[in-house]
Design brief:
Helices cover 69% and strands 5% of the residues. The chain is mainly α. It has two domains: 63 residues; 166 residues, f41 fragment of flagellin, N-terminal domain. The chain has a two-stranded antiparallel ribbon with strand order 1-2. The protein has a two-stranded antiparallel sheet with strand order 3-4. A hairpin with a 7-residue loop joins strand 3 and strand 4. The radius of gyration is 39 Å and the shape is rod-shaped.
């Protein structure tokens, strides 16, 4: 039956063309953005999961920065501790030489001057071993913390190591001198004790530095894996989408032709009145 009021064929063709246009728009969006899920309307569940994972990646970036700051602070402390260790070795040599009873007062005085200069250098190193406002070897802070996870619920702690003169580690006093044989002999013993204590402190700092380094490497790998997981969820297969685009463009052209043919069907009614 031919009718000028109702053209069912054109309706069907138009529905198919609209469907093709919608699919084509979706495919073009995926190609433009590189994402198969770029908004919540594409897939609400996947989008929510991906956003949560993106938040974790952002958090991991903050964790890495925190670990880097703590690691640099500890490295400065270690460098200062090693410098102090070298000074103590030099000071032990001076003290042992000054303990020789056969030295003249002038000779002992020369050793004492070198010794006190090295002693004062230790104080200078301790006071300047600072990074980002934190000094781990002058007893100004009990510890430093670095973030360990993306929500800040876990931290890595590095304890302070007080390397100041007259402390529990470097037991050599800030007034120690080699002006007498007795004082020189006492200094030798004190320096040996200080060196043993300092070696243990450096070992603790070294262990803490290694822990920070290992965790930083883990966070980097975790970030990479999480980003890969996000990609698996939301990234578009561009090769597949390209092929689909070609097919849809062809389908669109055929749909336009089908609609044109359907629209011409109503013209058949004219032939009945010729």
């Amino acid at each position: 039956m031919a009718s000028v009021n109702t053209n069912y064929g054109a309706m069907v063709a138009l529905q198919q063309l609209n469907s093709t246009n919608a699919q084509l728009e979706t495919t073009q969006t995926r190609i433009n953005t590189g994402l198969k899920v770029s908004s919540a309307k594409d897939n609400g569940a996947i989008y929510a999961i991906a956003q949560g994972m993106r938040a974790d990646v952002t958090g991991f970036g903050v964790v890495s920065e925190s670990l880097d700051r703590a690691s640099s602070t500890v490295d400065v402390a270690i460098a200062a501790g090693e410098a102090i260790s070298d000074l103590l070795i030099d000071m032990k040599e001076k003290a042992l030489s000054a303990s020789d009873a056969s030295l003249t007062s002038t000779q002992r005085s020369a050793f004492n001057e070198d010794f006190t200069a090295l002693r004062d250098q230790i104080a200078t190193i301790v006071s300047n071993a600072e990074f980002n406002g934190v000094n781990l070897i002058n007893n100004s802070t009990a510890s430093i913390n670095a973030l360990a996870n993306a929500d800040g619920s876990s931290v890595l702690t590095v304890l302070d190591e007080n390397l100041s003169l007259s402390g529990s580690i470097v037991t050599l006093t800030s007034t120690a001198q080699l002006d007498t044989v007795t004082n020189a002999s006492t200094a030798v013993t004190t320096i040996e004790t200080s060196l043993n204590n300092l070696n243990q402190a450096l070992a603790r700092l070294g262990t803490s530095s290694k822990s920070l380094e290992v965790h930083s490497s883990f966070i980097t790998k975790l970030t990479d894996v999480t980003e890969k997981g996000i990609g698996n969820l939301v990234d578009a297969d561009l090769a597949k989408e390209s092929a689909k685009l070609q097919a849809l463009q062809t389908k669109q052209q055929l749909g336009v032709q089908a609609l044109s043919i359907a629209n011409q069907a109503s013209g058949i009614a004219l032939s009945f009145f010729r």
